[in-house]
Amino acid sequence: MQRLTGLRGLVDAYDGFILDAWGTLHEGGPVLPAALDAVRRLHAAGKRLAVMSNTPQLGPVLARRLEGQGLPSDLYDFPFTAGDLAHEDLRAADGPWFAGIGRRAYHLAPARFPDLLPGTPFTPVDRIEDADLLVNGGPDRDDLPLSSFEALFRAAIARDVPMVCANPDRAIVNQGILTMCAGELAAAYEALGGRVRYYGKPFPGVFERTLERLGTEAARTVVVGDGLTTDIAGADAAGLDSLLIAGGLYADTLVTGSGKLVDDLEAAVRAISPVARPRYAVPRFAW
Predict the structure, then answer these.
(1) What is the pLDDT of residues 239-262, one digit of tens each?
(2) Distance between CA atoms of 84 and 206, rounded to whole angstroms?
(3) In the chain, domain spans
(4) What's the CA angle centered on 188, arms 182 and 92, to 5 degrees?
(5) Bridge partner list, 223
């Protein structure tokens, strides 16, 4: 793993940059100034840029949110999200996995994530007892413990209701607070015996679709993100190089109090994810 202080050393090596959003560009609040500067410089250098997020929101919604946080949409080429991929499959509702699944869906998600079911053949229902499918966009409230979902999940599993997980992230750092995401709910559902279909990083589809839209060669494209089990592991599986933002989700373990990479970074990374192999690492997303 090559230790870097910023992205300037990668400009000549790559034509395409696939950028994570949460933990890389921002931490729940305004876009980080150093990140905005780096995106501006990459754009000025003529690089192809995609913002690829595990949010269950659709790409246009993400773009508007990022605009409000301070990232103009004309600085990157397009957004692509786990929600986009999930919505495409829900809209088609075909293939072996969807065979035999009825068209009534219980949508578990915050009120700010309403976009997964409109435009699909699935009718939303308010009771899990009436559902054929559980669509998971995350906890409906940030203050709920994982245990509060057990009764809902057991009721669904008793009826063999499968789950679509539209955000594999298990947690994010939201302005300094670790917050549970849809991936944690999906893991609990599986642990109770439920069936789950995941969309987004690190699972197949999202990297391939993003690379196809970027139009850059795989060997000239790098994935940038703070998630070892999502951004980095997914890049590895897709055959793409990756740059780990060590000061994101795992900042307490991978970055010193003075903001530098820890001395034995490789061992610290392996302790978190034995399979993730970032090619590069920086303390934060900066030029």
Answers:
(1) 999 999 999 989 999 999 999 999
(2) 9
(3) 2-54+202-282, 97-198
(4) 50
(5) 18, 242
| DSSP state at residue 231 | I
Residues 6+ apart with CB under 8 A from 12: none
pTM: 0.91
Q: Residue 158: which H helix or E strand, with range?
A: helix 150-158
Distance (Å, whole) CA 86 – CA 84? 6
CATH architecture group of domain 97-198: 3-Layer(aba) Sandwich (3.40)
Sheet of 133-136: strand order equals: 123-124, 104-108, 133-136, 163-165, 196-198
At residue 40's C-alpha, the angle toward residues 51 and 25, to 5°, is: 40
Radius of gyration of the chain (CA): 19
Q: What does the H/E/C string look like for 55-70?
A: CCCCHHHHHHHHHHHC
**Common-topology check for domains 2-54+202-282 and 97-198:** yes
3 state SS of 272: helix
Residues 6+ apart with CB under 8 A from 70: 30, 31, 36
Distance, CA of 90 to CA of 99 (rounded, Å):
12
HSE on the CB side for 6, CA within 13 Å?
11
107-153: per-residue pLDDT in tens?
998 877 778 999 999 999 999 999 999 999 999 887 888 999 999 99
End-to-end CA separation in angstroms for the chain = 19
Gap between the Cα atoms of 31 and 20, Å rounded: 12
Please state which CATH number belongs to domain 2-54+202-282: 3.40.50.1000
